[in-house]
């Protein structure tokens, strides 16, 4: 996994504006670059539960999967977030199981997974989470002294101005339609980090429309 960047879970936040929107915030080891991912309510609750931040008496499907895996000596080695398309992160889970009878080596298996489910399992298995440099360059948010900044310390052409804080100009549907997919993804991630969930929902809808 030397070619990947290892991530840690920074936290999960709930939108106070848009119902049902949660943001999973991942970060690399220095904490300077963060990767925000919009996830669904159930997965957000499951991750929070595994982190010990919710009612421990409640059980999720991810807990059943953990019990099943332990019973059959299956180990989750890593979760890899490997692709980003139209604001959607794609992941796979790397498993290792006992060798088949007559074979001397353990077998590794890749299984594609929704990113939020993969993270929920990684927390339970205490497995590392990785992503690629390409995804970090495309969707990572750089922080300086606790505030998000442009990678080049310059204003974004997408209408985001930088002066320690990030401010968002009002975006109409027509404005979003004129923007490139790359700029929409950049604006989406900054909107999420700054908890501008109403804008984030509008951007996500426009990205989905282009699929």
Summarize the structure.
With 211 residues, the protein is α+β, with helices and mostly antiparallel strands. The protein contains seven helices and eleven strands.
Walk me through the structure.
The chain contains seven helices and eleven strands. With 211 residues, the protein is of the alpha+beta class. The strands form two sheets. Strands 6-5-4-7-1-2-3-8-9 form a nine-stranded mixed sheet. The protein starts with a strand and ends with a helix. The model is unreliable at 153-169 (pLDDT under 50).
- The CATH superfamily name of the largest domain is Bifunctional nuclease domain
Distance between the termini: 31 Å
Low-confidence stretches: 153-169
Order of helices and strands: EEEHHEEEHEHEEEEHHH
Order of strands across the biggest sheet?
A: 6-5-4-7-1-2-3-8-9
Number of DSSP-assigned strands: 11
Q: Could you estimate the helical fraction of the residues in percent? A: 25-40%
Topology:
Blueprint: E1 5-14, E2 22-28, E3 33-39, H1 41-50, H2 61-71, E4 75-85, E5 88-97, E6 107-114, H3 115-125, E7 129-131, H4 133-139, E8 141-144, E9 147-149, E10 160-163, E11 165-168, H5 173-178, H6 181-193, H7 197-209
Parallel strand pairs: 4-7
Antiparallel strand pairs: 1-2, 1-7, 2-3, 3-8, 4-5, 5-6, 8-9, 10-11
Helix pairs in contact: 1-3, 2-3, 6-7
